């Protein structure tokens, strides 16, 4: 499979970014290939396109399946498994956020709740208060996420656009810029 320069550049960048996002380079590149693919790809197609070993591709696909980021497809008269990504970008973003929350935020929040329920020594009173403050902030953020997750995509996009418009009304210090009305 020949990849255009555009596709190669995107795939290589996704691989580099993968390590910064907590996934390995191979997983990032496999996902990028599937994301750009015109049709679902089987493991053999991925091996041919990226030059990875079959075992690395299989492990990458299992990782992507565990994150719910790829979809399994079957073709008539073909026993191989084919993979694709969701067409809806918002579905991908929501899945990523949900998976990161399950893997990173929820365990941290559980630990902060446990620590907040302890009775600290006098020497740890300030640390205990900071832990409680962090727990409250993360709980507030997760409630906000839960509220946003209930929005339909169209309403979420509208909300984001409203935020962008509001951002243009705020100066660098976060103060609202007065709107000057002209006389008509």
From TrEMBL:
Recorded GO MF terms: DNA binding; DNA-binding transcription factor activity
Keyword Thylakoid among UniProt keywords: no
Keywords: DNA-binding, Transcription, Transcription regulation
Presence of the UniProt keyword DNA-binding in the record: yes
Protein origin, superkingdom: Bacteria
Family: Belongs to the GbsR family.
Protein name, UniProt field: HTH-type transcriptional regulator
PANTHER family attached to this UniProt entry: HTH-TYPE TRANSCRIPTIONAL REGULATOR MJ1563-RELATED (PTHR38465)
Ranges where the HTH marR-type domain occurs: 22-80
Alphabetized InterPro entries for the sequence: ArsR-like_HTH (IPR011991), HTH-GbsR_regulator (IPR052362), HTH_MarR-typ (IPR000835), MJ1563 (IPR026282), WH-like_DNA-bd_sf (IPR036388), WH_DNA-bd_sf (IPR036390)
């Amino acid at each position: 499979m020949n990849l255009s320069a555009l596709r190669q550049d995107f795939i290589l960048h996704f691989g580099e970014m993968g390590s910064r996002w907590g996934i390995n380079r191979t997983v990032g590149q496999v996902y990028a290939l599937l994301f750009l693919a015109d049709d679902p790809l089987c493991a053999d197609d991925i091996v041919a396109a990226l030059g990875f070993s079959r075992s690395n591709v299989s492990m990458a696909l299992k990782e992507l399946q565990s994150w719910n980021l790829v979809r399994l497809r079957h073709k008539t008269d073909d026993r191989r498994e084919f993979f694709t990504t969701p067409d809806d970008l918002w579905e991908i973003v929501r899945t990523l956020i949900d998976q990161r929350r399950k893997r990173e935020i929820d365990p941290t929040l559980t630990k902060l709740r446990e620590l907040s329920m302890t009775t600290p020594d006098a020497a740890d009173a300030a640390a205990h208060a900071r832990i409680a403050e962090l727990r409250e902030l993360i709980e507030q953020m997760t409630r906000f996420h839960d509220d946003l997750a209930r929005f339909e995509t169209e309403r979420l996009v509208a909300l984001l656009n409203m935020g962008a418009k509001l951002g243009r009304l705020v100066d660098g210090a976060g103060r609202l810029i007065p709107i000057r009305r002209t006389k008509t």
